Amino acid sequence: MAPGLGLAYPWGRDVRRVTPLVVTMENPNYSVVEIDGPEAEALRAGVPPMDKGRGRSAKQFTWVLLLRAHRAAGCLASLVSVAWALPSAVSKRFRRAAAAGEGPGHGRGWLLYRFIKGFLALSLLALAVELAAYWNGWHFQRPNLTVPELHVPEVEEIQGWAHLAYLAWMSFRADYIRRPIEFLSKACILLFVVQSLDRLILCLGCFWIKLKKIKPRIEGDPFRKGSGYLHPMVLVQIPMCNEKEVYEQSISAVCQLDWPRDKFLIQVLDDSSDESIQMLIKAEVSKWSQQGVNIVYRHRVLRTGYKAGNLKAAMSCDYVKNYEFVAIFDADFQPSPDFLKKTIPHFEGNPELGLVQARWSFVNKDENLLTRLQNINLCFHFEVEQQVNGAFLNFFGFNGTAGVWRVQALEESGGWLERTTVEDMDIAVRAHLNGWKFIFLNDVKVLCELPESYEAYRKQQYRWHSGPMHLFRLCLPDIITAKVHNPISPKLAPVMGIKVPFLGVWINILFYEHLFISMQISSWKKANLILLFFLLRKLVLPFYSFTLFCVILPLTMFVPEAELPVWVICYVPVCMSFLNILPSPRSFPFIVPYLLFENTMSVTKFNAILSGLFKLGSSYEWIVTKKSGRSSELDLFSAAEKDKKGTTPPQFHKQLSEKGGLIEINVRKEQHEKAPHDAKKANKIYKKELALSLLLLTAATRSLLTAQGIHFYFLLFQGVSFLVVGLDLIGEQIS
């Protein structure tokens, strides 16, 4: 130990200086640090440490300040680095977009894009006029709520023809433009109130379910018959199309389902157009078939109708009539081994039950900001919407996967139809009109993936919003003219008898329970489908979100006579975001990004709704959502380890025996062939979002002239949000 130097500290306390001694053990994973000093001796003697003096507190305070300064400097350095790299990234993306000729053109969304461009041009012109008027001293005075009439200057106050033209413009917008804007804003506010009531009722229903612990339950062991077990025949279908990243994990999970081998069959429905992917899937099917699993591979020559056509062709097989239930899993879904044992028993003793739907669980919900925001929406969808509708109405939209159908319900409802891209919602609506009931199992979860790139998420949302509107056009006449249908009333015993005197004769009237209920709620079913299921929950939210915050709000900046109240800017988006985020309380720190991102996505959703309602653009187009192939949360770490090892994977071979021959699949060759195509992938720019960003930022600049604080901040942050999304800076970044 080095001797003390006898130096006194400025605050007057003499401290003994020591040199720490580090003793390293033979095991490199452990080390012991021994510090010699008065406090160490006191600890050895079992005496509590002495109270630290004022000098030590001052030193600790200094270290805390230094630590916080270091953190602040780190955050500042990160922001500076991002700000430094952002212009370069933006310029590269614009150069790439210009070289590739990207843009709406005459494709999907070009009409909305032209509208936004025209609106932006008018806004810039109006901003120039307002700036010129402000520079000349023609200040606009905010209208008095008690005296809304516009003050017109006297003739001697007019300062030339430009001032006269500006006054004419003010008079025109006050007389002719203000009223339509106010009417449209009031209509949007009314829609917001109605939907808020709907969301609030759903949240209260969810709270009631949790409070009373309401959920579907299985009584006893329904498959036990005497001394043995009698399991029903189950068909499991895995539709897929060019999904090289996830086929292996989904087939593996389904083949490990805990069910008697002779009681279920797996159909791998491959619609892949890539022959190399077909060979890979055949190899995986052959591997499990050799292990004794009843699994078959099907590939259509004529791939029409997308997923609906694929499922329809599979259900047309002769052996399907031997199966009572069919479970469907998309290619990225991985059910747990006990999935069938948790779902199939609910059908036993419940002949009216047509569908059992399980909940989705996401392996990559914390991958990036985009996946976190998606998780908020889907948590509300499953936890609130589907659970409440399943518990109280026995109806909700089938999610297309992670569900089990009664084959009889599918057949009596018309089977899979190829008329729309939301075949799952189509069959659910038709089955509901035919009297079948659905239940939702919130505690049965199936692993799947969320889109990690904005491009994939955008295409998915476009299909999810154009498809329901297209279906609404097609099935609205069927809903209106639907008659009460009871698929199994002949099997039900009468539950009561009532005698009514008529013409001196007692007539015994038998009421069947199901028929009685169906007659009572048939009109309610139609109203629920049209008003709530389709219009309110599929159409209203994107409509008023886009109209109110992307059209009316910027417009009121240039027509200040029709100013939106502050509570509309504050409470409308905050209330909707708060209700949506309730089922996922861990996501509350992301409430502001979620609010801004949902308003940003309203452009894509509104465009999709118009396409579906009026058959514009590509309303009947199916683009497979890109998957990353994460089988569990641990894959996040394994993927990083693979990146560290290098980009050249080891060469390996898969073999399968087919017709006595040996087919060898060289995966390295396939990856080399695909490398040029993958190298062309890059982040894109989205012109509609960029145009709206400029529009909102222009409106924010105009709001400064009238000192509208809350309007300015909302427009500023929403414009920045559109800018981030338009430059594809959210989600997966491809270098």
From TrEMBL:
GO term, biological process aspect, one: cell wall organization
Chief location category: Golgi
Record-linked InterPro entries: Glyco_trans_2-like, Nucleotide-diphossugar_trans
Residue ranges of domain Glycosyltransferase 2-like in the record: 326-558
Compartments in which it is found: Golgi apparatus membrane
Gene Ontology molecular function: glycosyltransferase activity
A cellular-component GO term for this protein: Golgi membrane
Membrane topology annotation: Multi-pass membrane protein
Keywords tagged on the record: Cell wall biogenesis/degradation, Glycosyltransferase, Golgi apparatus, Membrane, Transferase, Transmembrane, Transmembrane helix
Bilayer-spanning residue ranges: 496-517, 529-558, 564-582, 712-730
Transferase is among the record's keywords: yes
Family: Belongs to the glycosyltransferase 2 family. Plant cellulose synthase-like C subfamily.
Entry function: Probable beta-1,4-glucan synthase rather involved in the synthesis of the xyloglucan backbone than cellulose. Seems to work simultaneously with xyloglucan 6-xylosyltransferase. Xyloglucan is a noncellulosic polysaccharides of plant cell wall and consists of a glucan backbone substituted by xylose, galactose and fucose.
Protein name: Putative xyloglucan glycosyltransferase 2
Originating organism: Dichanthelium oligosanthes
